[in-house]
Write a structure and sequence with these properties.
The protein is built from 3 helices and no strands. It is mostly helical. Helix 1 packs antiparallel against helix 2. The longest helix has 19 residues. The two termini are 15 Å apart. The relative contact order is 0.25.
Length: 66
Amino acid sequence: MAKTVCKIMGLVFLLVGLLGFTQVLAFTGAHLTPAHNMVHIVSGVLALYFGFAGSLSGARGFCLVF
């Protein structure tokens, strides 16, 4: 279950981070800075790592931290 949650969170974080560099999210009222977008991208990459290649305990730990 934790690995599945990490995969979903990773995709969402990555998508939000990449869309943050465009003006698409500005229409929703989200005013994200480039640094904030990079945090989303790094978090998404980490979540995807734990979801696909990491151990179950690592995925569980990531989910608990987030």
